[in-house]
Give the backbone structure.
Amino acid sequence: MTPHPLRLLAADLIQVELPLVTPFRTSFGTQTVRRALLVHLYTDGPDGWGECVAMEEPLYSSEYVAGAEAVIAGHLLPRLAGRKTDAAGLALLLGAVRGHRMAKAAIEMAVLDAELRAQERSLASHLGAVRDLVDCGVSVGIMDSIPELVDAVRGYVDAGYRRIKLKIEPGWDVEPVRAVRAAIGPSTPLQVDANAAYTLADAGHLARLDEFDLLLIEQPLSEEQIAAHAALARQLITPVCLDESIVSLEVCAEALDLGACAVVNIKPGRVGGYLEAVRIHDLCRERGIPVWCGGMLETGIGRAANVALAALPGFTLPGDTSASDRYYRLDLTPPFVLEDGRLRVPAGHGLGVEVLREVVDELTVSRRTCRLAPLPS
Ligand code: NPQ
Ligand code: MG
């Protein structure tokens, strides 16, 4: 067995570009390609892969690919140089750096992958998974017309997705939701995501969504407006769910104390990693708050880890853990494929997926190597 904790030796920071099968429009813009940052970590044992969820531009949150790469190379990896650490030890080593949670999470994922391969354990079992299949939902972008939206939703329902999420924004909310609810019937779970596109003054308008029996409305107001979300929640029947606002366990606890949300979207990248994600899961479970696993158009690398997390007992709502072909014709791992509306939790060691090096190489747009320890002489 390899020594534990592992010594971190070097990391390749690789930017890849994956074309999307169809443009994805949200209240902050339209994406046609996914530029993703990968971390390939070398240790004195197995290597490990991590994926950073930051977007190419700082539109969903303030982090973005080039910024995350700069923070990883210039501020995070230097703090790990020559260290022996496991994923749990990263908090102490990287804690002096404020924020940059998506960058930290990418390193954590790579360390988890390497350390769990060394221990011959799966990430799912390490995190506390209790299922080997997870219910999947799908996030459906804003479209040019309601018929086009209804067609797309029908396709996803036919593919087996167990929950539909519609992206909304002012001017694309009540009527699209009405049409989709009519098309899919009352029993298919339906929710909406505003990505912070409204203000508290829109409360009366958003209450018009109450008649459609939505599971939840996700992040209607801006990231910083925890108290305003609480005020809005008191004016809606539809439960409020927070995404962008929940950047840590501390913020989550305060949001729950204030009554700002009744449901939490957990995205490991947004909260600084899988270990913090599990702590948020545990808190919500204690307080009877349902959680679900969000998505950031991950490749198979990040998707594998999300599916493992979504197998924890508190993840009682279907996540945005869609199949690979929802976004990509060619994924960086063997594709995740729906099985009756569910994805299978990887059971192999570490992330439990094989990274297809030839696909990564084909899609690579930049690569740099960061050395963390002197080469053996
Ligand atoms: C959300 N994701 O829940 C996000 C937002 C989002 C699946 O709805 C490129 C990379 C484009 C990340 C578009 C889903 C993106 C992105 C939207 C994340 O709010
Ligand atoms: Mg969201």
About this structure: The chain has twelve helices and 14 strands. The CA atoms of residues 149 and 242 lie 24 Å apart. Residues 193, 195, 218-219, 243, 265, 294 surround magnesium ion (ligand 2) (CB under 6 Å). The mean pLDDT is 97.
